[in-house]
Design brief:
heterotetramer; A: about 425 residues; alpha/beta; Aspartate Aminotransferase, domain 1; Aspartate Aminotransferase, domain 2; seven-stranded mixed sheet; 17 strands; about 40% helix; B: about 140 residues; alpha+beta; Sufe protein. Chain: A; about 20% strand; globular; binds pyridoxal-5'-phosphate
Chain lengths: ~425, ~140, ~425, ~140
């Protein structure tokens, strides 16, 4: 099973963990489900679902303003989840943790709230060719609206952002924002962000880290990363849909205009004067995704009980195994870095067969993979394809699923032979 | 199970995919449009030349890439459109094309199968100056440069 | 029990319906729970929770892009919920129904996306003194940002917006937006919007209807209302937290810039050019609140199985009963209109006793009411108070809870005697 | 149950509520601030006059409205602050006031109890030009006119 040596005593047991996930109790097309699309969204453990149900059944009310006990319990549930999220990313304070719908909304919050008030002509926003649309289009849009330049760092042969472009960029522009992902959802690359973060801070630019794909798979530490903002999505890390979080440095958040406005985010409202509330409430207008936050907290408990280091090791192991097995399939092109540098994501193409057709025929064999541009059209453009196939893994993924994928690919080839 | 593959990837689909009819471009076409399938990034361009009556479709071609379903459906559409009037084709019911394709399609794959027809309709409506029907309008949405 | 005569054969049986709500299975401070804060957020029926669990356990995957069966099922779940929501408000098309976190986000979407591109100096946005902060502060903020005027229609003695101000407003301004609620969350008033909608359209202004408080309690019909946008929140109508919807006229939505940007809302992305997707996707960036939408759909099924006419009649009956019983309490001031004109909301104050203290002492007797400004500070200002007590009712509310409230108020008075 | 009321609304709390100490205003105060409890809309204004040393709190008053908990806590705070230095009071631990109040408080009611102290601290920090500690900063947030 590949050549990654891990102490078996500390390895996670994916076969055992699968029992926590009700989704695996059914068959698809008469076969067990090989779910290889966790990078799009993860499946949910019972423990997380139960935490949400318990909240709804015993502790539900609108939060923060109620004096009665149910409201106090609900508030405690939400704020406990905030503390769990803070600890998960090692943020200095819960005041800096803002609950939103997903990473996309978190990135938009920064683009709008910071960008609309700090970007202008002559300024530049720098992203990479590897960005997910959610860390690309908001910057493109707000930069354009403000008359600032939107620059894309192209990637080199090895798929990494080509840093040799930085010098010229710094010469010609006032760089105000550098925004990149920590783990690529298309290639699986785990980036070394240190040089870019240092460069950004030399330029007095803010560094925005899209950690949507990193959070499920590795220990995050906003202080060690030294970023200014960081975005995550709950649904990719065993949490429910409808919840994500933005972390930002308190000084920055404090000095920013709010984004969404309305109930809860104010300290007082009059027709002629309105005052914003304290952090984090200033950025949380309207009724919060309360049960979803509780679910995210429970998901974090679940992941931490297993251990993020073990999850990461498990994924490296699966990536190595998958790269090996897929490499045997005739006509395959594999994209991305070596197994040690990647999270559990493997993108590939079969010569002459469109990914939609590959995925369709795999589905008929109980294998679920993603086929498409993975919200990375600039990267697809660079690779010279419209789409790729992508198999992605998580803590519950077992090597048998990868075997099922490889077998399935032979069947695909037969159809198109 | 291989029965399921056979149903969806039946011989005629694979044939149209491997030997698409009407693949190519037309210089100075009378009608033309580009379409995208936002789900997979596939793109298709369609070119139409009218006969002298300015209404009958004399020639129609497509270029671009796509999955077997979208390529085969577009290829079949090319054959179905030649000799018919622009108005007829611009108002063609999708069921007519689906009968021709004659395979079971899930909603996502339906988008693949419809890419060519939608794009052809947009081309014809634009050429004739008729308003795009609901659901097609999205294809010439706002741009940002 | 009041003098509202209803055919018993068609009345809803709140005692029986309570069994659907797990929250009522516990006691608080040794008493059964009198939950009188449904206007802030409603409790959840089992049927809705089960629908979400079923979705997570059998049909979960990321929506729209997946070719495999789980993704198809998830997409169907989401889109079925959209159709249920469309039917619930009688919208012409599902293309016009946008899923968001809550009504607040829906109102912000309109303020930003429409307002940032259509408001300028000389233009005016008109709201009422009765608005919830969520339909007040976004307009105040965006109007200010664009140099437009923000005008507040004050209310008259009877608590209705004073329409005699309209003529002068129309003379002095180009009115671009009129934004009001359909049901007031503070006074419970069910407004007759016809004159304001007609006036707005005479001015060529858009009419934005905040139906967050109306949706739980009465049949909505966007075509009969003749509004341009309408906002609702799932959590107030037996649905989960984390989901709301905006309805807008297709022509308007089509001509608007998008709001949140990123994955899913595009049709193609390049560094130099990005094209937006079709409706409704253009306004739904990032991974959707999928399970929450499914929950909202199930909540709508639940409400419609009971019948919104019956729910409304039940609330009028409770409001009448509550106004009668509360009126007996010495030193009480009741705010708002007569029972026939109000949804199940009763705001009041006890002379010399702050609402926080009232609510606190009620809590110790198992009675949950809200004390505060109800996100309506401009209204509180007009009433000359910082806060009121508010008891609010829903389909599961029984007269015994109102009795428990009234008894509780006598105990409050005793403490402060 | 009436035991629970008695615990929270004990005699001394009700006495301070009904007869608040230090209720009023100071003309030309040396330090001054307004505070809001965003949860219920309560507002309090606090006024301080220093002794000749410019440091000792000679007089402190409050105006505004609020619930029994916030009014009683602020009233007690007035008594506790007179004669102490600005620095001492600006860095007073909230526990000191809580011991004086001596009733069980839920997190929401804690906000009520702390409104006066927070506002007084803001007044003192502003007068002394010392930076507001974390969590107080929100009180002079951005305004929009
Ligand atoms: C009339 C009204 N409008 C808007 C809102 C805001 O709803 P949400 O907090 O769900 O966004 C509410 C609920 O508090 C309301 O009652
Ligand atoms: C790298 C990356 N960034 C951002 C996102 C957006 O996440 P969401 O759709 O949850 O907002 C994703 C997920 O698709 C992602 O993989």
């Amino acid at each position: 099973m590949g050549n990654v040596v891990v102490n078996t005593a500390t390895k996670l047991d994916a076969h055992a963990l699968r029992a926590d996930f009700p989704i695996f109790e059914q068959e698809f097309h008469g076969k067990p489900l090989a779910f290889l699309d966790s990078a799009a969204s993860s499946q949910k453990p019972r423990q997380m679902l139960e935490a949400m149900n318990r909240f709804y059944e015993t502790s539900y009310a609108n939060v923060h303003r109620g004096v009665y006990e149910l409201a106090e319990r609900a508030t405690e549930g939400l704020e406990h989840a905030r503390e769990r999220t803070r600890a998960f990313i090692n943020a200095p304070s819960t005041r800096e943790v803002i609950f939103l719908r997903n990473a996309t909304e978190a990135l938009n919050l920064v683009a709008y709230s910071w960008g609309l008030n700090n970007l202008g002509p002559g300024d530049a926003v720098v992203v990479t060719e590897l960005e997910h649309h959610s860390n690309f289009v908001p910057w493109q849009y707000i930069a354009k609206r403000q008359g600032a330049d939107f620059l894309m760092l192209s990637i080199d042969e090895s798929g990494d952002p080509d840093l040799s472009q930085l010098e010229e960029i710094a010469r010609d522009h006032t760089v105000k924002v550098v925004a990149t992902n920590l783990v690529s959802n298309s290639l699986g690359t785990i980036h070394d962000l240190v040089p870019l973060v240092e460069w950004a801070h030399e330029q007095n630019a803010i560094f925005v880290c899209d950690a949507a794909q990193a959070a499920p798979h590795m220990k995050l530490d906003v202080q060690a990363l030294d970023c200014d903002f960081l975005a995550i999505s709950g649904h990719k890390m065993c949490g429910p849909s409808g919840i994500g979080a933005l972390w930002g440095r308190a000084e920055l958040l404090q000095s920013m205009e709010p984004f969404l406005l309305g109930g809860h985010m104010i300290s007082s409202v009059r027709a002629d004067k309105t005052m914003w509330g304290e952090l984090p409430h200033k950025f949380e207008a309207g009724t919060a995704p309360m049960a979803e936050a509780v679910g995210l907290g429970a998901a974090i408990d679940y992941l931490e009980a297993i251990g993020l280091d073990k999850i990461e090791a498990h994924e490296h192991e699966l990536a190595a195994y998958a790269l090996g097995r897929l490499g045997e399939v005739p006509g395959i092109t594999l994209y991305g870095p070596s197994a040690e540098r990647r999270a559990g994501v493997v993108s590939f193409n079969l010569e002459g067969i469109h990914p939609h057709d590959v995925a369709q025929i795999l589905d008929l064999q109980g294998v679920a993979i993603r086929a498409g541009h993975h919200c990375c059209q600039p990267l697809m453009h660079k690779l010279g394809v419209a789409a790729t196939n992508r198999a992605s893994f998580y803590l519950y993924t077992i090597p048998e699923e990868i075997d099922q994928l490889v077998e399935g690919l032979y069947a695909v080839r037969k159809v198109f032979a | 199970m291989s029965g399921a593959f056979d149903q969806m990837y039946r011989e005629v689909i694979l044939d149209h995919y491997k030997n698409p009819r009407g693949h190519g471009t037309i210089e100075d076409p009378d009608a033309e449009a580009d379409g995208q399938n936002p789900l997979c990034g596939d793109e298709v361009s369609i070119y139409v030349a009218f006969a002298d009556d300015g209404e009958t479709i004399a020639e129609v071609k497509f270029s671009g890439r796509g999955c077997a379903i979208s390529q085969a459906a577009t290829s079949m559409l090319m054959e179905m459109s030649v000799g018919r009037t622009a108005t007829e084709v611009a108002t063609m019911e999708k069921e007519e094309l689906l009968e021709e394709i004659a395979i079971p399609l899930t909603p996502v794959r339906l988008k693949c199968a419809m890419l060519g027809l939608t794009t052809l309709k947009v081309a014809l409506h634009k050429a004739k100056g008729t308003p795009l029907p609901e659901g097609l309008a999205g294809f010439d949405e706002l741009e940002l440069t």
